[in-house]
UniProtKB/TrEMBL annotation:
Organism of this sequence: Oerskovia rustica
Family in the record: Belongs to the FPG family.
Cofactor: Zn(2+)
Protein name as catalogued: Fpg/Nei family DNA glycosylase
SUPFAM superfamilies: Glucocorticoid receptor-like (DNA-binding domain), N-terminal domain of MutM-like DNA repair proteins, S13-like H2TH domain
Keywords: DNA damage, DNA repair, DNA-binding, Glycosidase, Hydrolase, Lyase, Metal-binding, Multifunctional enzyme, Zinc, Zinc-finger
Length: 309
């Protein structure tokens, strides 16, 4: 799943490639992907892309409606201004940019799908280029909204602090941790508290902060909070620097290569050489280094102990 650094890279890429282009088609292949019905996707046609932005793990393509669409909206009482095509790639969604987007009619894709990525939405521009939103897997979670204001999407309106923004101070983090007594791993991934961090980067941040994923938020003293704050900034800043400027097609590999513990069960920790361990849950797993993060204590994991027997 793309997290803040990959989404930031995709947004910068889109902002550079798509801004100024006119939308000539916006075709939905997966009915379930589109979560809004008014305005319709056809309202994008004839409009000009004015830029791309990121809200947590959401991408936002802003489009200024064409002249005819603009006059319609003013008579129907709909607020003027840009339309926002906002989308969340979820676990198995992806964005593909093409210099030469297919002009063949978009066919509805089977909602059952499979391992192979299938088309959900195609947006084409006047110069022949275009964007495909695709999704693999059987559980379709990719979400596309067409709105006048990104805050119309509840998951965007309720996003927590932007971890690379000026509001994410040590004091803000201390306040946020002190307001609850929960495991750090869950708090870092909670989009309503801090926006943009998911399962992979929370593992990396906790490893960099040398802290257990299960540590309770209120057990951190001021120094621990400072370490965690530095780790959030450092891990995300480094990942953004690594990702940005890369074409969309290379981002997944770049993310995987940059991971020190996430997804590296059984490999050596690059800091201390201990083996990277895993705790698995029903639908995901976390990785950590016992020497670096838990004072050598191995966290309980039923599946892992079965495998090691
Ligand atoms: Zn280690």
């Amino acid at each position: 799943m793309p997290e803040l650094p990959e989404v930031e890279a995709l947004v910068r890429f889109l902002d550079e490639r798509a801004t100024g282009h006119v939308v000539v088609a916006a075709d939905l292949a997966s009915i379930v992907a589109l979560k809004t019905f008014s305005p319709p996707l056809s309202a994008l046609v004839g409009g000009t892309v004015t830029g791309a932005a990121r809200h947590g793990k959401w991408l936002d393509l802003a489009v200024r409606p064409g002249a005819s669409a603009g006059s319609t909206s003013s008579t129907s009482g709909v607020p003027d201004g840009d339309l926002h095509l906002v989308f969340h790639l979820a676990r198995a969604g992806w964005l593909r940019w093409s210099e030469d987007a297919p002009t063949t009619p978009v066919r509805p894709t089977s909602s059952r799908g499979g391992v192979r990525a299938v088309l959900a939405l195609r947006v084409r521009f006047e110069d022949g280029s275009g964007i495909d939103l695709t999704e693999a897997g059987t559980r379709k979670r990719l979400a596309v909204h067409l709105v006048h204001d990104p805050d119309e999407v509840p998951a965007i309106a309720t996003l927590g602090v932007e971890p690379l923004g000026p509001d994410f101070t040590r004091e803000r983090l201390a306040e946020l941790l002190g307001a609850r007594n929960q495991q750090l791993k869950g708090v870092l991934r909670d989009q309503r508290l801090i926006a943009g961090i998911g399962n992979a980067y929370s593992d990396e941040i906790l490893h960099a902060a040398r802290t257990s994923p299960f540590r309770l938020t209120r057990s951190l003293d001021a120094e621990d909070v400072a370490h965690l704050h530095d780790a959030v900034r450092d891990v995300l800043t480094e990942a953004v620097a690594t990702s940005s400027g890369r074409p969309a097609a290379e981002l997944k590999d770049a993310k995987r290569r940059g991971m020190r513990v996430h997804g590296r069960t059984g490999e050596a920790c690059p800091v201390c050489g201990d083996v990277v361990r895993e705790v698995s849950f029903a639908d995901r797993s976390l990785q950590y280094c016992a020497t670096c993060q838990t004072g050598g204590q191995v966290l309980a994991d039923r599946r892992m102990s079965k495998l090691l027997k």
